[in-house]
Design goal:
Elements: H1 2-33, E1 38-48, E2 53-58, E3 69-74, E4 89-96, E5 103-110
């Protein structure tokens, strides 16, 4: 009897594991997909491709309660800086950085 109960418990674990793993995975994917992003626009002041940074004089970003200001932004990929030159007017998308409260540019386009 005891062996039958153990075998049943083991089978139950194997039967439930794929469904649990799939729901855990889809929950993770949903969290990534629904992460907050914020839109901004501004003028490029300088570009530092080596450090993956762009200095911008940006307009207010209401969704972050940020006034317009000049600041450095990190970018997620070097190719985002390929066409950026001082004086360029741009629109950009901010996504959460690796550190809490930090925002990085994930998309940037010339206006």
């Amino acid at each position: 009897m005891r062996n039958t109960m153990i075998a049943g418990a083991v089978l139950l674990v194997f039967a439930v594991s794929p469904a649990w793993a799939e729901s855990a995975h889809s929950g993770h994917m949903q969290t990534k997909a629904t992460q907050a992003t914020h839109q901004g626009s501004g003028k490029v002041i300088s570009v530092d491709r080596e450090k993956l940074k762009v200095k911008m004089d940006h307009a207010p970003i209401a969704s972050l309660n940020w006034p317009g200001m000049t600041m450095d932004f990190a970018v997620t990929r070097a190719e985002l800086l390929d066409k950026m030159k001082p004086g360029a007017q741009v629109s950009f998308t901010l996504v959460p950085g690796e550190q809490p409260g930090r925002w990085v540019i994930d998309q940037i386009t010339l206006k």
